[in-house]
Amino acid sequence: MRLSLLLSCALLAVGGCSSGTVRGVPAGWVLTGSSPSDYRIEQVGTDGDAAARLAARSDRPSGFGTLAQVVQAAPYRGRRVRLSAEVEAEGVTGWSGLWLRVDGTDAVLAFDNMEDRPVVGTAGPERHSVVLDVPDSAERMAYGVLLRGGGRVVIDDVRLEPVGPDVATTDQLASPLPAEQLRSSALLSVPANLDFEE
Length: 198
Ligand SMILES: [Ca+2]
Description:
- With 198 residues, the protein is mainly beta.
- It is built from one helix and twelve strands.
- Residues 49-51, 156-157, 195-197 line the site of calcium ion (CA).
């Protein structure tokens, strides 16, 4: 591992590694969104204290980019689920937020991306959360952090856990939204590398 970190630093000669080591997209995660090429994801920090950073490649990127993971919904069916993570924003000119999406075979069943309570500017680190019900018809769940606009956001210690009915949902959908099925190429059976240490 140390050797690969050193190689990463060597390849990143411009920009350096003064604030810790920098690696690529963390294992188990993907870069996607409406304009993924306008954004980049790096694994930052030292071994044992690594995190993921989603950053705009320019001051005025188009669309949004997101660090995402997709898992099978079966273990969560019939449960209320909370996605949470530590989020730290730096110079976010648009907005950022955690998001969670529950998909059936041909519809989005539940969704929230914190658009009504976004992370903006320079803020945190602070734990944010999204809470959704996972219906019995759920097939997949996707989640992550999104960034729209300039700046960068660092995320760590993601948790996806069942909660009781006393925790209110943050669902933005009043009813299921017809949609194409999520691409399943990156589908995981269970969440992985939520601490970005891999
Ligand atoms: Ca970590």
